[in-house]
Amino acid sequence: MGPNGAGKTNLLESLHVGTQGFSPRTRSDAELIRFGERSARIRIEGSRGATPVDIGVSLTIGEGKKAEVNGARLRAAEQLRGETATLVFTPDRLAIVKAGPAARRAYFDRVLVRLLPSRARLPAGYASALAQRNAALKRGDRDALAPWTRQLAELGAELVDARRQVLALPDVPFRRVSGELGLEGARLGYEGEPPTLEALEARLDRDLERGATGLGPHLDDVSIAAGDRDLRAFGSQGEQRTAVLALLLAEADLIADQRGERPLLLLDDVLSELDPERRRVLVEQVQSHGQTLITATTADALPAAPAQLVRVTPGEAR
Question: Whole-model pTM?
Answer without folding.
Answer: 0.88
